[in-house]
Design brief:
mainly alpha, Rossmann fold, four-stranded parallel sheet, 49% helix, disordered N terminus, binds 3'-phosphate-adenosine-5'-phosphate sulfate, Gal-3-0_sulfotransfrase, P-loop_NTPase
Length: 390
């Protein structure tokens, strides 16, 4: 009886202790989750490959044209190749002896006799198909990116001012636009930066006088070689098309804008028209591939494209909130970590990103990869492919 009388308080105490323990565990758990470094689903990409019927492509040639958002595309290729242990055809230094035409011997470790095989070729070069074919697999996917030559030349004027004789001679951009042929002499130092820059990067003669039948023939040949030509003005639509063609996941093509200037000179419509006329070959090229781009979008489906672009933007926003201190790019001097400071060149400030410090290590590594500038990433890949002392 005594025992029975004693039991309720003991049971009650036990129940109270149990409830308290559960509460403390839950409280500590949620509290620890809140204060522990942030993490996100790096290991489970948003689009599961298991439902895909296509085979992800890993033999890639990207012609990194200049001032066309190529660094943002390159970062994505670097990340993909790095994570999947693909082999890059790397330059000895940072570019393939640009502005010379590409040659297979410019690739670090390339040897005509033993012919090593590569997965990705993507650093700055002047395109030269026969030499590329010597080292890249025959099933490689070729793609490049173009930009309206008017805004491209505005960017180029600011960035390459000190290395192009035409730009150096012009007192300012307005003067250059008004009288380009006064400042420009074909063949003078660095003048490929000042006229038909994309035509030049494609390995063609940028000083050829404009002629429709020649331009048409060259552009058709480019169309035959390149499986996809992206447009920097429609970067997100470009990434969706690329993701589809490569059969990659959404996270593989999400990126933050790299290599942007702090400010640019706004151009009047009349100035844009003048620059397009000055860059007649590039304008012809751009108009042609603008048309093929939107034909591809039509085939992909407009509504589907809108949906995919929304998904891409949402994921970028989500990653930016997880990874970055500021949602807008910042000046290099605000970035304390040397490894992610953007390379500075030219008249304008090139912007970069500050990655949060209090992130879980895997998450932080992922975030750092997304903002690692081109030259630094090239060193990382180089060290991985050519370990010292091996
Ligand atoms: N995602 C995205 N969307 C649109 N535009 C973008 C993007 N990423 C980079 N950019 C712009 O591309 C310009 C830099 O191009 P590159 O990286 O090819 O330059 S470089 O040749 O490698 O120096 C540079 O243009 P300017 O700012 O006009 O110079 C960048 O702002």
């Amino acid at each position: 009886m005594r025992l029975l009388l004693c039991q309720p308080p003991i049971l009650l105490k036990g129940l109270i202790i149990l409830l308290a323990t559960v509460f403390i565990i839950q409280f500590l758990g949620s509290h620890l989750q809140e204060s522990s470094p942030q993490t996100f689903t790096v290991l489970h990409p948003l689009t599961s490959t298991s439902t895909q019927t296509c085979q992800p492509k890993s033999h890639i040639v990207f012609l990194k044209t200049h001032k066309t958002a190529g660094s943002s595309v390159l970062n994505m290729l670097n990340r993909y190749g790095d994570r999947n242990s693909l082999t890059f055809a790397l330059p000895q230094k940072y570019q393939f002896s640009y502005p010379s035409l590409f040659n297979a011997n410019m690739v670090k470790g390339y040897d005509e006799l033993n012919k090593p095989t590569y997965d990705i070729l993507c650093h700055h070069m002047r395109f030269n198909l026969p030499e590329i074919r010597k080292l890249m697999p025959s099933d490689s996917f070729y793609f490049t990116i173009l930009r309206d030559p008017a805004t491209l030349i505005e960017s180029s004027f600011s960035y390459y001012h000190s290395v192009s004789s035409a730009f150096k001679k012009a007192p300012n951009l307005t003067e250059f636009i008004a009288h380009p042929s006064y400042y420009y002499k074909p063949g003078d130092n660095g003048n490929h930066y000042a006229r038909n820059f994309q035509w030049f990067d494609l390995g063609l003669n940028s000083d050829t006088p404009f002629n429709v039948s020649l331009a048409r023939a060259e552009v058709r040949e480019i169309d035959r070689v390149f499986h996809l030509v992206l447009l920097s003005e429609y970067f997100d639509e470009s990434m969706v098309l690329l993701k589809e063609e490569l059969c990659w996941d959404l996270d593989d093509v999400v990126n933050f804008k790299l290599n942007s200037r702090e400010s640019s000179t706004p151009l009047e419509e009349r100035e844009k028209e003048m620059l397009r006329a000055w860059n007649g070959l590039d304008w012809y090229l751009y108009v042609y591939f603008n048309r093929t781009f939107w034909e591809k979008v039509e085939r992909f489906g407009r509504e589907r494209m809108d949906f995919e672009v929304r998904r891409l933007k949402e994921r970028r926003q989500q990653l930016a909130e997880i990874c970055l201190e500021d949602l807008d790019p910042v000046r290099a001097n605000e970035i304390k970590e040397n490894s992610i400071k953007p390379f500075q060149f030219g008249q304008e400030k090139i912007m970069g990103w500050v990655v949060k410090m209090d992130l879980e290590p895997n998450t932080r590594a992922w975030c750092i990869q997304m903002v690692t500038p081109e030259l630094r990433y090239k060193n990382i890949l180089d060290a991985k492919q050519f370990p010292v002392g091996v």
